[in-house]
Design a protein that fits this description.
Elements lengths: L1 E3 L3 H13 L4 H24 L4 E11 L7 E10 L6
Antiparallel strand pairs: 1-3, 2-3
Length: about 90
């Protein structure tokens, strides 16, 4: 999992962008960082248990609630050992 939040300035910019409409770039960057971190953690865990690949990667996004503006990205998959065909 990779929980992320924006600071007060980022929340202000996001609020302003949401009034105007269109993409809220203040959050797009943080969500992309969180996605990459979650995937990297899955890869690191797979390697740590002797795997060399992850199949069935699933990414889920949720809001932690509490009006805190925290979004959680979780990545799960199955760690496997892939061997070349002989």
């Amino acid at each position: 999992m990779s929980p992320r939040t924006r600071g007060i300035l980022g929340k202000f910019v996001a609020g302003f962008q949401s009034v105007i409409g269109g993409e809220v770039t203040a959050f797009t960057t943080e969500l992309e960082k969180a996605r990459l971190e979650a995937i990297e953690r899955v890869k690191e865990k797979a390697v740590s248990i002797g795997a060399n690949a992850v199949i069935g990667l699933d990414l889920e996004t949720s809001d932690i609630g509490l009006q805190a503006g925290i979004t959680v990205i979780s990545a799960t998959g199955t760690a496997v050992v892939v061997e070349p065909e002989t």
